[in-house]
């Protein structure tokens, strides 16, 4: 993995529905390696690399990140917010946020009535240092979105950042595009609005009509103290998804991915995700049905400020994408 590419893609601003900055960063990295590159109406970034077989493989990763949207501003200049995607109020408090125009703020909560562990998003606000509503409105409007500011935490082979979900997968697909070899047309699709209900992926797949889609996302793990039972562990390879709340992956697709992994001696893990859906399902239900599977990057502490992945899994995922693209026979 090119670390500069990873850092730039993971760090870019891009909450659901406001992915343009992230899209532009990814575009800058992949432009030299594709035949066509465009954003569709919803903002999905679609890169095409032509093959000769007449078949199409789509690799998809979502660009959007979770955040907060301003719904009201009070007389003292505090911003009240609603979540964009699965944001925990408890894990929002005491964190730094940034708006698209670079306005900075900090998140806190009405501390009069409840304990911190009992608060809902109703009691959470952003302080942008304004003393009045007018002063706040000079910087931020209702409907503007903030994302959580995060630094990379490098812990040997493991790297934490607020937005590993799912920019690490965007970085994996972008990195793979550099050396991608395939008989098939390759569609690398960086989707929008996954975190608010997998809204972008379906329309993109409808137009592309791929013979096979492989989504890339993060998945939860069961290797931390007293965690919920899960089979997947960090550092044991990318996963081949069997099920999440959006999809049951056809055996033919799982076998295809596992065979490609075997040929290239890439260790993979079987994944059954306990909670949450992915673009995999939205794409499967497009048109008359599309063959759709998913490779996941094992990730600790998903939807917290310290989403942690293992670089061995990341590098293996790049290889696995390339291995799938090289396969001549599709499922
Ligand atoms: Co997510
Ligand atoms: Zn995700």
What does this structure look like?
By secondary structure, this protein is of the alpha+beta class. It is built from 9 helices and 18 strands. Strands 1, 2, 3, 12, 13, 14, 15, 16 and 17 form a 9-stranded mixed β-sheet that branches. The chain has a 6-stranded antiparallel beta barrel with strand order 4-5-8-7-6-9. The chain has a 3-stranded antiparallel β-sheet with strand order 10-11-18. Strand 14 and strand 15 form a beta hairpin. The protein is globular. The two termini are 28 Å apart. The site of zinc ion (ZN) has 6 residues, from helix 5 and strand 13.
Question: TL;DR?
Answer:
The chain is α+β, with helices and mostly antiparallel strands. The chain has helices at 3-11, 20-30, 89-92, 133-137, 164-179, 201-208, 251-263, 279-284, 311-326, and strands at residues 36-39, 45-49, 56-62, 67-73, 78-84, 96-99, 104-109, 124-127, 145-148, 153-155, 158-160, 185-191, 212-219, 239-244, 247-248, 269-272, 292-298, 308-310.
Keywords:
binds cobalt (II) ion; single chain; six-stranded antiparallel beta barrel; binds zinc ion; 27% helix; 331 residues; 9 helices; globular; alpha+beta; nine-stranded mixed beta sheet
Low-pLDDT segments, ≥5 res:
none
Question: What class do helices, strands and sheet pairing give?
Answer: alpha+beta
Give the DSSP E fraction (strand runs of 2 or more residues): 25-35%
| Total beta strand runs | 18
- What hetero molecules are in the model? cobalt (II) ion, zinc ion
* Number of H- or I-type helical stretches: 9
Topology of helices and strands:
Blueprint: H1 3-11, H2 20-30, E1 36-39, E2 45-49, E3 56-62, E4 67-73, E5 78-84, H3 89-92, E6 96-99, E7 104-109, E8 124-127, H4 133-137, E9 145-148, E10 153-155, E11 158-160, H5 164-179, E12 185-191, H6 201-208, E13 212-219, E14 239-244, E15 247-248, H7 251-263, E16 269-272, H8 279-284, E17 292-298, E18 308-310, H9 311-326
Parallel strand pairs: 3-12, 3-13, 13-17, 14-16
Antiparallel strand pairs: 1-2, 2-12, 4-5, 4-9, 5-8, 6-7, 6-9, 7-8, 10-11, 11-18, 14-15, 14-17
Helix pairs in contact: 1-2, 1-5, 5-9, 7-9
């Amino acid at each position: 993995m090119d670390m500069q590419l990873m850092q730039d893609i993971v760090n870019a601003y891009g909450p659901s529905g406001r992915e343009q900055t992230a899209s532009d960063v990814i575009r800058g990295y992949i432009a030299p390696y594709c035949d066509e590159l465009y954003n569709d109406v919803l903002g999905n970034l679609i890169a095409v690399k032509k093959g000769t077989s007449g078949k199409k493989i789509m690799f998809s990763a979502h660009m959007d990140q979770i955040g907060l949207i301003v719904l009201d501003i009070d007389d003292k200049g505090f911003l009240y917010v609603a979540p964009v995607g699965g944001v925990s109020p408890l894990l929002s408090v005491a964190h730094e946020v940034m708006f698209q125009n670079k306005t900075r703020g900090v998140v806190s909560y009405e501390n009069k009535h409840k304990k911190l562990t009992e608060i809902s998003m109703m009691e959470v606000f952003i302080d942008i240092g304004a003393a009045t509503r007018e002063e706040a409105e000079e910087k931020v409007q209702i409907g503007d979105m903030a994302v959580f500011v995060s630094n990379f935490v490098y812990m040997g082979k493991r790297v934490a950042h607020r937005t590993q979900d799912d920019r690490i997968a965007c970085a994996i697909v972008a990195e793979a595009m550099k050396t991608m070899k395939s008989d098939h047309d390759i569609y690398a699709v960086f989707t929008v609005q996954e975190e608010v209900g997998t809204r972008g992926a379906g329309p993109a797949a409808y137009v592309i009509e791929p013979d096979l889609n492989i989504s890339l996302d993060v998945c939860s793990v069961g290797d931390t103290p007293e965690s919920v039972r899960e089979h997947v562990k960090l550092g044991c390879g990318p996963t081949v998804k069997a099920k999440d709340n959006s999809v049951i992956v056809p055996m033919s697709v799982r076998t295809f991915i596992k065979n490609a992994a075997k040929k290239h001696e890439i260790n993979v893990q079987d994944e059954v995700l306990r909670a949450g859906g992915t673009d995999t399902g939205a794409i499967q239900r497009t048109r008359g049905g599309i063959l759709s599977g998913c490779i996941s990057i094992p990730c600790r502490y998903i939807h917290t400020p310290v989403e942690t992945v293992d670089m061995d899994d990341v590098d293996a995922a790049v290889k696995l994408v390339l291995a799938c693209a090289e396969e001549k026979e599709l499922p």
